[in-house]
Write a structure and sequence with these properties.
By secondary structure, the protein is α+β, with helices and mostly antiparallel strands. It is 51% helix and 14% strand.
């Protein structure tokens, strides 16, 4: 009887160890999958945020007054600084800056995406809005 009791204790210990190892593996797999899903959601979230900034700019800038100036861009920057907006620029078709507010992360002329395309890196997102549709 002592042998059976000792075998039962040993099986219980191995069972507890197995449960602990399976639980740890489940937590690790769950964490890894959550991380990968969060990374996959970052570009669409950044695009949506950029579109919200662009929509706000288009609402504040009136086409009949011409292109938005630095004051309008600074107002947009101030309003959305808490959302992570750090730099706004108005570019011509050649990619030259016509008006800007804030400090760009990249010094000098950075790569400019195609209209509607999203470029991103660690801690930054760059999007170029297509020109607004003509009024009417």
């Amino acid at each position: 009887m002592a042998r059976t009791e000792r075998g039962l204790r040993q099986a219980t210990r191995w069972g507890l160890l197995g449960v602990a190892l399976l639980s740890a593996a489940g937590i690790i797999v769950s964490t890894a999958l959550g991380y990968l899903e969060a990374r996959a959601l970052a570009p669409p979230l950044a695009r949506g945020q950029a579109e919200a900034f662009i929509r706000t700019l288009r609402e504040r800038a009136r086409p009949e007054l011409g292109a938005p100036g630095p004051q309008i861009l600074q107002g947009l920057l101030d309003r959305h600084a808490a959302d992570g907006l750090r730099y706004v620029a108005l570019l011509d078709r050649g990619g030259r800056v016509l008006a800007a507010a804030g400090e760009p992360l990249a010094g000098g002329r950075a790569s400019v995406p195609a209209p509607g395309e999203l470029l991103s890196g660690p801690g930054w997102v760059r999007v170029l809005a297509p020109p607004p549709p003509p009024p009417g």
